[in-house]
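[Meeting: bench + compute handoff]

Bench side (C.D.) handed over the final construct sequence. Compute side (W.E.) agreed to return the predicted structure before the next meeting so the bench team could plan truncations. Sequence as handed over:
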Amino acid sequence: MTHKISKKIIGYKVLTSEVKAAAEQAANEAKIADLEKMHENLERPEVLVGSTYKIKTPQSEHALYITINDIILNQGTEHEERRPYEIFINSKNMEHFQWVLALTRVISAVFRKGGDATFLVEELKAVFDPRGGYFKKGGVFMPSLVAEIGHAIEAHMKHIGMIKPEGLSDHQKQLIEEKRREFEALHGSSNGQAFPEKAVLCTKCSTKAMVLMDGCMTCLNCGESKCG
């Protein structure tokens, strides 16, 4: 395609691939800068979407219900993302009302502040109750009620894509299944339980699924092995 030049040429520049790439990158950065981001001054919409998680512990006859509401940023575009905006915890048990209310307000403030809020998960999961923790159904150990709230937040963040789940590979699953069959052949079946009765607590996944096989402790839940 030809173009007729009707004016005097006063300068020129050769557009190399590097120059084009830099121009495209600058345009993309400008586009990203205009995207809607999470920050503390972001106005709350009239309607938020969310999920409610039920927590039942042996420490109380009443369950806790954790509701996490999300805000949708850049809705309808290729950059659409869902981020936690607020959290509420409700229960008939009023014993923990004061600190639970304080915790929800602090967590909600962190959500609205923006940035990477996934650090909250590990901070909460690391809290231990001096009176001792408890085992959930399936043999998962919870060091405290606060830790279980952290697990609920983690499950929600995985659900909306903030945390990428670390699943086992097909090879790991096959290896664990083989170890389980070998253990049950020697010690009997698990009688419908998730893991054998003789299993001990795994320090990696906090599940009573660690068994002794061939002189080596192996977890039948996450694949952790003391022999590498």
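W.E. noted at the follow-up: Residues 67 and 88 are 5 Å apart (CA to CA). C.D. will use this when planning the next construct.
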